[in-house]
Amino acid sequence: xxxxxxxxxxxxxxxxxxxxxxxxxxxxxxxxxxxxxxxxxxxxxxxxxxxxxxxxxxxxxxxxxxxxxxxxxxxxxxxxxxxxxxxxxxxxxxxxxxxxxxxxxxxxxxxxxxxxxxxxxxxxxxxxxxxxxxxxxxxxxxxxxxxxxxxxxxxxxxxxxxxxxxxxxxxxxxxxxxxxxxxxxxxxxxxxxxxxxxxxxxxxxxxxxxxxxxxxxxxxxxxxxxxxxxxxxxxxxxxxxxxxxxxxxxxxxxxxxxxxxxxxxxxxxxxxxxxxxxxxxxxxxxxxxxxxxxxxxxxxxxxxxxxxxxxxxxxxxxxxxxxxxxxxxxxxxxxxxxxxxxxxxxxxxxxxxxxxxxxxxxxxxxxxxxxxxxxxxxxxxxxxxxxxxxxxxxxxxxxxxxxxxxxxxxxxxxxxxxxxxxxxxxxxxxxxxxxxxxxxxxxxxxxxxxxxxxxxxxxx
Length: 460
What we know:
single chain, alpha+beta, 5-stranded antiparallel β-sheet, 24% strand, globular
């Protein structure tokens, strides 16, 4: 049973919804729906999905890879989840796909900023839409939250990504640079009440006012980073007009930016608000509370940016080491190799190097491309991120695991490799998807799953 709804929230929603309020109130007492979004670059068994997550599924109307599940499985015990085959994402937030599909030409190389990105659901969604020549910057201001953000993006496998932890004012230096900016702004969380009772306990009218003011600071910086003609998405997971329509109206009145109207089927149940946004209510859609508005920055002259001549935070990998690193990647790739101060080897898409240089010039805390491993003496030790990356060479040795073996691997335990397995490094693989690295020795195997990624619950 959920905690009692705060009386000021009830009064607010009665004023907003009128006779619809009892329907929302009843919906908030029901279990939230469960939904996932499939990773189009990580299909199982030669393209045939065999996810062990139930057979009665239905499609999320506004995303082609979105699926509702009849009940919530134990995702931790599904090896394909750890391989990045899908993201457990709330269905309403997948509407970002439809808004971008109607407003952005994703066949072109783009620079995309997810300004408030953790834990990474919307970043992975946008990464799926982008070409390999495009760059996604996934930013999280709160530094401790970048760990989950990096993990989720690493699991998704795209190399054309930079994870950053910068204040919005740092991005304001990159004026007129981004083609698309998503500001999924921190909010009062009214739309999460039935999923997160703590959000209900922490809610208050002063908090709503505080969130609305913070959102305006974020949105002002977001507009500044956007190039003329670029698209801004502003979203929250709340209902109140102060944070949603109020800030959308404030945007349109104070900046050279125009609201965009989307074409939305009535059957989807999405409400177009008085301020031109799109509101999701749990009594009208199969999803949680969510708000989104879309804007286009007016055309004009864009500020020119000159990339730095060299990186501040990384240095080129010595030329004599490049062949030993490149052999782990698909041979057709054009990559640049770098060393971090801690000795990690990074692989960056060559075409995007000017963009990475510009990011390095302006931002203090960032992680670029794919961390593919490290050299210890003359030996190269591949990283977990490489195993999950779509850049990993398809011809690398691999060990196909049963479900039981895959779960043992994810517990960071050992098991007997199949007879005839060659010695040396091998990918641990389940249903055609990479889970991590094994090293096969004459009398045993070593499990190289990072300690922090291991399953801690019982697997039987």
